[in-house]
Amino acid sequence: MPFLSAALDRVKPSATIAVTDKARALKAAGRNVIGLGAGEPDFDTPGNIKLAAIRAIEAGKTKYTDVGGIPELKEAIAAKFQRENELSYKPNQIIVGTGGKQVLYNALMATINPGDEVIIPAPYWVSYPEMVALAGGDPVPVVCTAAQGFKLQPDALEKAITPKTKWIILNSPSNPTGAAYTRAELKAITDVLVKHPHVWVMTDDMYEHLVYDDFVFATPAQVEPKLFNRTLTVNGVSKAYCMTGWRIGYAGGPAELIKAMATIQSQSTSNPSSISQWASVEALNGPQDFIPVNNKVFKERRDLVVGMLNQAKGIDCPRPEGAFYVYPSCAGAIGKKTPDGKVIKDDTDFVNYLLEAEGLSVVQGSAFGQGPAFRISYATATDILEEAGRRIQRACAALS
Ligand SMILES: Cc1ncc(COP(=O)(O)O)c(C=O)c1O
Predict the structure, then answer these.
(1) Helices and strands (DSSP H and E) totals, the chain
(2) Residue 124 Cα, ligand 1 centroid: separation in angstroms?
(3) What pTM was estimated for this model as a whole?
């Protein structure tokens, strides 16, 4: 349609929409559908955080704020970076946005010129390549296999870097695989990056707190201080604090970059919600003891789901270090026939089969740049996960 912008030609519609639409249609037709597609904790926002928001409303903190965030929140973020990541950011090196998503988008919009390349390890969060393309850049996916723990290998990174590389986007723990880099694995990556001073690092640490089995989280600028001046450390309150709807994300980075991101934000959305900002001050400064309590539940669910998936014929599910996703391979189901005679050609066919035969909605791996696989979010009640596991086992057993 000539009325629409040419920028839209560069962006794919979300590959997950077809499956979601189909699930919705089946639900509307009265089918019992289990959705394991959502990327948000099923736990409620803690009471002290809600109370801080109510108090902010009552105190009239309901007006525009500084574009990049209230000083109290920047202070809380600086303290968080120091306490948890050994990173020292000053207030002018911190920005708050309407979710981590907007922070990432602003950073790309503020830096990408036509032809700039952005290295994105695959499987990746669906929005990275689309945001890069919208900003006019070229996403460069680098495949990381299950055998590599879905983690970028230093030699693969070295090969992907060109004179046009502007950024690498790292995401640990990862959406969609749950894979998280140990300090040593990150150091091997940062050792390569140190040799290429034109490459900047965008690290999406959104799932920092969601790690299991005593895994110790680390972030690139902490592991390699030489990268501090060219790293944007992105984080947010959505996942660990169960605040997806509040829409607060933030980043620490070089002051000049942060200022450029604030310029973009000032001409698009201005400040994030004042009320959500005050709630986030409480989230970061208040008690953190609910995080290990939630994590214990997530870990039990992860183990349940991995166990059930590995008992399904043709499915191979690695046990990831963090987040609330698993990313099983369905290679063993490809080429097989469904009871009504359809051949499963790829992971899209497989997830459609799960939906049609068993009313189970998951997302195909091709949406995340690597298949045949699928993503399951286990941020759902345990009894629902048990039922989902039974449905997958039944569906796989019925293939011939
Ligand atoms: C890897 C990753 N980064 C960023 C985000 C964005 O989070 P928010 O915009 O809620 O802060 C998400 C949300 O799903 C995510 O999975």
Answers:
(1) 13, 12
(2) 12
(3) 0.96
